[in-house]
């Protein structure tokens, strides 16, 4: 059966990988809805069964227009201001995108004539905040400490509540630190790995470069390769028994920043010069996940840190 699938934020880093995977099944038509604020048109696969609609998720009018043109079988809501720092600097503006827009989309989905098979929302490990108990399970205390984390959690609650109140088929994915090709390294708030990979490539070409660590380099993170995130998202969408629940999507591995630098140095046979700056506001010392819950429905990461980094570095 032919499915029409909406991916908001599909021109972004994670969204574009999801679109690629969804479009590879020729029975799917994929609609990318994005305002290209951080996403890029070049990220969207140039395929017959993928269409791009330029629009803003915080505009009720744009959402209404979108749903008047299409009826969706699946919806993946990834559009967001994905920078925690941006939310700290502009809490009101980011709130409109990171939370209000979720309700517009849920409302449009609720009133769609055909029942959606699944509405999957992209949340974040940021909902857990700085509470120190580890690893983070879906039962862990939720205590977000930034506007970004608060909006993600409030959105999650709306999504789950729409499932419970109106019987909408929904699921929530809490991503840990995602890395991989097409992650933008040019903003000062970029993912640490995209910056590290850029620095490594410059050094490999014989250029001078330096990698700046905020803090002592011993902070622990769970970095998950983007293709594994896509695997998790599609599982949550397609497993019918999943209804109105949140799931961690992570690698289940933990690494310090120093360890990751060593892996990069080994892969590329280089030395990466380091400089150390102050810990950034809101940075958490340790964050890693239990993936037992999503593991029970068949999720299995395909990439170790080294394999993911090798694939990332081969790209371009
Ligand atoms: N990258 C990570 O490590 C990570 C971790 C946890 C959660 N997430 C979440 O995953 C999702 C995707 O993040 P990403 O890393 O791919 O970031 P990204 O910035 O590459 O992608 C976000 C996309 O949303 C689009 N967008 C932003 N505001 C919009 C608006 N008002 N209307 C329409 N489109 C809009 C952007 O243009 C971009 O294409 C986000 O919801 C983010 O919060 C990411």
Write up this protein.
It contains 10 helices and 13 strands. With 316 residues, it is an alpha/beta fold. It folds into 2 domains: 202 residues, 3-Layer(aba) Sandwich (Rossmann fold); 93 residues, Alpha-Beta Complex (UDP-galactose 4-epimerase, domain 1). The strands form 4 sheets. The protein has a 7-stranded parallel β-sheet with strand order 3-2-1-4-5-6-11, sandwiched between helices. α1 packs across α7. Bound molecules: nicotinamide-adenine-dinucleotide. Nicotinamide-adenine-dinucleotide binds next to α1, β5 and β7.
Which SSEs are present, and which pair or pack?
Blueprint: E1 3-8, H1 13-23, E2 28-34, E3 50-54, H2 60-69, E4 74-77, H3 84-89, H4 91-110, E5 118-124, H5 147-166, E6 170-175, E7 177-179, H6 192-204, E8 211-214, E9 220-221, E10 223-225, H7 226-238, E11 246-249, E12 255-256, H8 257-268, E13 274-277, H9 292-295, H10 305-314
Parallel strand pairs: 1-2, 1-4, 2-3, 4-5, 5-6, 6-11, 7-10, 8-13
Antiparallel strand pairs: 9-12
Bound molecules: nicotinamide-adenine-dinucleotide.
The site of nicotinamide-adenine-dinucleotide has 27 residues, from helix 1, strand 5 and strand 7.
Features:
38% helix, single chain, 7-stranded parallel beta sheet, two-stranded parallel sheet, Rossmann fold, 13 strands, UDP-galactose 4-epimerase, domain 1, 316 residues
Mean pLDDT score, rounded? 94
User: Total helix count?
Assistant: 10
Any idea of the CATH topology of the largest domain?
Rossmann fold
Major sheet: order of its strands?
Answer: 3-2-1-4-5-6-11
The CATH class of the largest domain, by name, is Alpha Beta
Small ligands present = nicotinamide-adenine-dinucleotide
The first-to-last residue Cα distance is 35 Å
**Radius of gyration, rounded?**
19 Å
- Low-pLDDT parts are none
Summarize the helix and strand pattern as letters.
EHEEHEHHEHEEHEEEHEEHEHH
Supply the number of structural domains. Answer: 2
Briefly note the structural class of the backbone: alpha/beta
Main sheet record: 7 strands, parallel
Q: Please report the total strand number as a whole number.
A: 13
Binned, the helix content reads 25-40%
> What's the CATH architecture of the largest domain?
3-Layer(aba) Sandwich
- Look at the structure and name the CATH superfamily of the largest domain: NAD(P)-binding Rossmann-like Domain
Q: Tell me the fraction of residues in β-strands, as a range.
A: 15-25%
Protein name: UDP-glucose 4-epimerase
Family: Belongs to the NAD(P)-dependent epimerase/dehydratase family.
Pfam family, one: Epimerase
Pathway: Carbohydrate metabolism; galactose metabolism
């Amino acid at each position: 059966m032919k499915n029409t699938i909406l991916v908001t934020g599909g021109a972004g880093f994670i969204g574009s990988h999801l679109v690629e995977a969804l479009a590879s099944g020729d029975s799917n038509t994929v609609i990318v809805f994005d305002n290209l604020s951080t996403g890029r048109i070049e990220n969207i696969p140039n395929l017959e069964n993928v269409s791009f609609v330029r629009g803003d998720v915080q505009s009720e009018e744009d959402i209404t227009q979108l749903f008047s043109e299409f009826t969706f079988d699946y919806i993946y809501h990834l559009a967001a201001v994905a920078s925690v720092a941006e939310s700290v600097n502009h809490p009101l503006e980011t709130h409109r995108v990171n939370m209000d827009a979720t309700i517009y989309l849920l409302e449009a989905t609720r009133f769609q004539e055909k029942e959606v098979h699944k509405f999957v929302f992209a949340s974040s490990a940021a909902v857990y905040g700085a509470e120190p108990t580890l690893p983070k399970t879906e039962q862990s205390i939720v205590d977000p400490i930034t506007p970004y984390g608060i909006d993600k959690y409030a959105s999650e609650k709306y999504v789950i509540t729409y499932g419970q109140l109106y019987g909408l088929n929904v699921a929530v994915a809490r991503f840990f630190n995602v890395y991989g090709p097409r992650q933008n390294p040019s903003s000062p708030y970029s993912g640490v790995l995209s910056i590290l990979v850029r620095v490594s490539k410059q050094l490999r070409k014989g250029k001078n470069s330096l990698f700046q660590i905020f803090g002592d380099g011993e902070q622990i993170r769970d970095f998950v390769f983007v293709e594994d995130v896509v695997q998790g998202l599609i599982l949550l969408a397609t497993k019918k028994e999943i209804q109105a629940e949140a799931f961690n999507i992570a690698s289940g591995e933990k690494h310090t920043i120093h360890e990751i630098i060593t892996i990069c140095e080994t892969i590329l046979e280089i030395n990466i010069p380091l400089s150390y700056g102050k810990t950034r506001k809101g940075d958490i010392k340790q964050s890693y996940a239990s993936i037992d819950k999503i593991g029970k429905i068949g999720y299995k990461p395909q990439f170790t840190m080294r394999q993911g980094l090798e694939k990332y570095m081969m790209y371009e």
